[in-house]
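Input.
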Amino acid sequence: MTVMIDSRLDILLVEDEEGHAQLVLRAFELRPGVRLRVARSLAEARELLSQTTPDLAIIDLLLPDGRGIELLEELRMSETPFPAIIMTSHGDEEVAVEAMKAGALDYLVKSQENLSQLPHFCARALREWHHIAERRVAEEKLRESNRELEAFVYTISHDLRSPLAPIIGYAEFLRDAYGEVLDTIALDSLAEIEGQGHRMMTLLEDLLDLAQAGYLERPEEPVDAEDVLRAVLREMESQFPRKVEVRTVSPLPSSRVPASQLAQIFQNLIGNALRYGGGNVEVGGERQGSQVCYYVRDRGPGIPPEERDRIFEVFYRGSTSGASRGTGVGLATVRKIARAFGGKVWVEETPGGGSTFRVQLADDPSREPLPLPENKRFLLEIYGEYCEFPPLAPGKSPSP
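Output.
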C-alpha cells in the first residue's frame, strides 16, 4: 500500500496490523510533503528497501516473519543508513534498551494517542539524526585535519633527523681528533653542539612517537600488562644509571590494547616519575567494568592544580620540572593513546606529596559510527534547520 502525498519525504512503515497501520496513515494524511510506504512483513520491507532508500522508517517490533529489531541490525550494516523508530503494543524497558542498542532513535508504545502524535515523534527522530549527521561530518573534518597535521609532523621530524646525525658526528670527530690542540672555548663549543644536537634528536623522536601514537589496531587477544611493564623496566635500566625503584602493588589487568602503546604509556609516565619525582615509583592498575585503569605514582614535588590540565599539552613543561631534561611531548603522547582507545588521562595529588597519573582505557572496541551517505546528508532543504513537519492545515486535526 502506498499513500502518495508528495515525494519530498519518504517514510517506510513496517506494520502488519491493519488497524494500527490505518491510524498511522491518518496521522500523516493532512501533512503535505510525505510519501508513506507500508510493508506488512520483514520480507516486504526488505523488498522495498532493495528498490529505494527511505528518509525514515517506522518499524513494528513483532512481525509475522520475525522481529523488527532484525531489520534495524541489517540497516546498521547498510551503506545508506537512515533513522528508525520502533513501535510495540506493550511497553518493556528491556526491549526498549535492546531497540536503542540496535540503532533505533526512538521507541514508543502503540496507543491511539501516541499514533496520532507520530509525526511529532518522527520530527524528533529526524532532528536527532540531523544532529548526529552534523556531528559526524564535523568529526570527520577534524580527523582529516589531524591526519594532515600528523603527516606534516612526521615528515618534518623524519627529514630533520638526517642532517642532525652528521652535525653531531662532526662535532664528536673534531673533539676526538683535535681535542689536544683546541682551547677550552672551542671544546666547550663542540660539547654544546653535541648536547643540543642530541636534545634535538630526542625531541624529533618524541614527535615521531606522537604522530604515530594511537593508530594500531586492537589485538585479538588481551595483552599481558605485567609482561609489558617488565620489558619497559629492562629497557629503562640503561637510561637511568641509578637503581630504578619501581614496585607494583597489585597485578596489572590485561587489556586489548597493543603492547607497543601500553609500553609507550609506561615509558613516559615512569620516565617522568623518575626524572622529576625521584626514584620511589609505584605502578598499579585495576579493571573497572569494560575499562581498565593504570596508574603511576611518585613522591616528588607534585604539580600545582592550575597546571594539571596544561601538562598534557605538547611542549608544555610544568613549573616544578626545574632543570630536568625533557621535551614536553611524552604526556601529550600518553593522552593521544588514551583518547585513541576510548579513554582519558589525568593527574592527582599523591597523599603525602607527589603526583599520581591515571590512564583509563576502554578494553572493548566501541562500535564504529555508521557511514553517512552523501545523497542523504539530511532534509534541510525540505524542512529547514530543525526539520520540523509542516503544520496542519487550519482547522484540521488528525482523525482518531
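The first strand starts at residue 2 and ends at 4.
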